[in-house]
């Protein structure tokens, strides 16, 4: 916690989760003379990893890439549980003195840029205000106060308990009880095997199949490399290995969807030992990576099904009844507990509606430059991770890009920069996924373009070359392609 709270700061970072702590590290090391604070609406570090408490909560990417490049992941598991990730984030913040810059229980309610004063004025939840020269949103794109909860008919008549994973009740006792988990995304496939070890039986009820792939819980190659090399060097090598693999696998799925389908169904058949179940419940109609691929470490979901502790039903909810859920097929799933793993809601910029000179900017009319800065909004950046790889890969690149922009402004004597397209572009959704949680809310977000720095690519290798080796000054104000409006 900061001991002094100046009324003006050079940079304000919104959110003390995985992205915000990483952003603060980059800012502190590359611009040590700048004043900054992290504003965190809650009373703890960790963001998602502090908020989500449902059984089995874990990463859906390997920790060598989800972790920070500057802070080696030292635990045994490659796919880690939530408490381990939370401890890692908190430890990183303490090690680098970042925790001293965090203002807890401080939510940004409003943000307005003054062209005359060349600064942001932030309206805070404690009733105060704060000004800053640059505003960086690291709050992610989920609504952490509300989940997606469809209105199921008959739920008032249900005699059991209904819970949503985003707000998991600490007093829930499901030992020896019948559980139905509605959903088939990453949350559902995590909860089902975790609850299956304690509940009488867990049924995953899905409307349609999702691509699910077993992955090793531990990376044996990484273990060997860490045995032989110092922690920092080993982390860099394993990270590079995993980046190359995930990038290559995503490209393989997009270019050869038919072959990818055969590969994933083959892995499922080998793990599930039931070809009919794979065909009925684990073979989606869409191609791999049209929606995010769900990873299950050590095939734990399939093992729970093989052991008879869990099962999958593909059907639609007709109505809740006192004893459980009646399906469209007429079958009734008896349940003492129903878990509605029906997804999250998207929320642009963590709920901040930025304005310029008193006028709120319509985000849906704007474009995103390099996946970071938004047209029409000076000295503002947003951290958006990859959808096909670890969130932190792009988050770290974005933070380093922000530092380069700040360095250019200092060096050239400018006080602000705002991106502007140099030509008319086709408007494309910011997130190129067909998932329901994306399609429900993506229209409220800024758009990506169809070319150059206005495309939000899903390729870390290309992005890293452009960010780490590219000339940001040439992109901001170069004579060949001026992409920014600059002010002194």
Automatic annotation (TrEMBL):
Pfam families: FMO-like, NAD_binding_8. SUPFAM superfamilies: FAD/NAD(P)-binding domain (SSF51905). The lineage of its organism: Bacteria, Bacillati, Actinomycetota, Actinomycetes, Pseudonocardiales. Its cofactor is FAD. It comes from the Bacteria. One of its GO terms (molecular function) is NADP binding. Keywords: FAD, Flavoprotein, Monooxygenase, NADP, Oxidoreductase. This is Cation diffusion facilitator CzcD-associated flavoprotein CzcO. Belongs to the FAD-binding monooxygenase family.
